[in-house]
Amino acid sequence: MKSIISIAVIAMSMLLAACETMVSDIPEAKLPKGESRLVVNSFISPQLSYINVIVTESIPLFTKSDATGNKIENATVRISDGVNEVTIPFDPKNKLYSIPQSKFPISASKTYYLSVSDGKRSVTAQCTVPKQTPVIKSYEIDTVIRSYSLYQDTAVTLKMTWQDFPKDTNYYRVSAFMDIDYTVPVATDKQDFTEKRISGTYDFNWNWQTGRNELISDNKLDGSVFTSPIGRASLPHEQEKTSANGKKVIIYPHTKITAINMEIYSVDKHYYKYFRSQTVSDNTDNPFSEPALIYTNIKGGLGCFGAYNAAQLKHSYTK
Questions:
Q1: What gap in Å lies between CA 292 and CA 119, rounded to an integer?
Q2: Could you give the CA distance from residue 33 to residue 52 in angstroms, rounded to a whole number?
Q3: Each residue of 172-211: pLDDT tens digit?
Q4: DSSP characters over 98-141
Q5: CA distances from 178 to 143, 146, 174 (A)
Q6: Global pTM?
């Protein structure tokens, strides 16, 4: 038995040594060459108040470069509908290029063209806004309670249904958040704690069920009534604090939900493929698997220029 173990250890050592040699012996001249490219991300919709464009740059993996990956502030960013064109100025406060839709409206069914240049590099992209807005047919709201050793977790669940548009290839994304009022502990000047009532928003998570997420395609389900995954949003739980005199105080949140805001996006193929590829990449846990490529429709660069048309519905709670 000892000899078998010894042989296994020796074999493993040789394998690791071989791997190390393979990595260290690759000449720099044979490593793949790459240049820093512009990375552009922008998602437009008739329901958004602003057109926003984020411009950064990639950092080559094997090539020495001055690229930092920081946001680029001196680029020329233009958007066009094929007839009218406008230059989008840089917003130094939010570190992105932004223009209100009052100056350049986004309309359903229209194709838009985006161009970005920093003087050395230029990229282009185009996308078409989906022509139809989904309609939320129904929704179900429920509460789930789970008890743990230190606290009790209360979560709100949400499920929505909508009608698919027949005779077209459609892609969707579901989204929702809830507005709540709740109590939090606040430290006082006397090193004690008091209660304060605040407001906040909590997003619903659609990825907690295996094999389900917020992105949906009507592949082989054309014209069907779609049901979203079950979205889940945990509510604040009680917090235990210890004052200066050693007294323990438990602050209960006394949460009150004021509204649940639901959205179903009809997204274009670029939006769908980009976020779908990110999901696949994030879920690749096998260290021996090939890295998943992130989809891009930016010609000459990286990133995504996509569009969506959103249905919005608000469920308000009476006070």
A1: 31
A2: 32
A3: 999 999 999 999 998 887 778 889 999 999 999 998 877 7
A4: EEETTTS---TT-EEEEEEE-SS-EEEEEEE--S----EEEEEE
A5: 13, 20, 14
A6: 0.82
